[in-house]
Amino acid sequence: MRIAISTDGEYVSEHFGRCPNFTILNLEKGKVIERKSIDNPGHSPGFIPQFMNERGINLIICGGMGARASGMFEELGIETIAGVSGNINDIISKLEKGTLVGGESLCKPGAGRGYGVEKTVCDHPHED
User: Fold this and answer.
1) What is the C-alpha to C-alpha distance for residues 12 and 57, in angstroms, rounded to an integer?
2) DSSP label at 29?
3) What is the pLDDT of residue 106?
4) Whole-angstrom Cα distance, residue 123 to residue 127?
5) Distance, CA of 60 to CA of 73 (rounded, Å)
6) Which residue in 19, 23, 72, 101 has the fewest CB atoms around it within 10 Å?
7) Which domains does the chain have, with CATH numbers?
8) Residue 7: enclosing H or E segment and its boundaries?
């Protein structure tokens, strides 16, 4: 299974489309056999789902994802798990153990409108 995790430094990025990087994993028999980082190719509508599909990605893990991107992944047969947060190494450990669960997507309608990957401030709610 090939997995892409929206990444910001060593943590899951809050917004799938605006993450600086994606951590790409090859998972076989419950173990990561390959791990690499790729730059986000850009936040133009519809591009990243196709980009991931062309690279054989089966699963996307992120903090938040808009409804449009989520629908595009569904059409391509790519599973998504949103509402994930924390350190990438902890997330990988949960993947290997089969205990990773998502939650409510951090993205709200309109949060991504009109901005590209360069946007430095997100419109998501933040914990105090």
Assistant:
1) 17
2) T
3) 56
4) 13
5) 9
6) 101
7) 2-97 (3.30.420.130)
8) strand 2-8
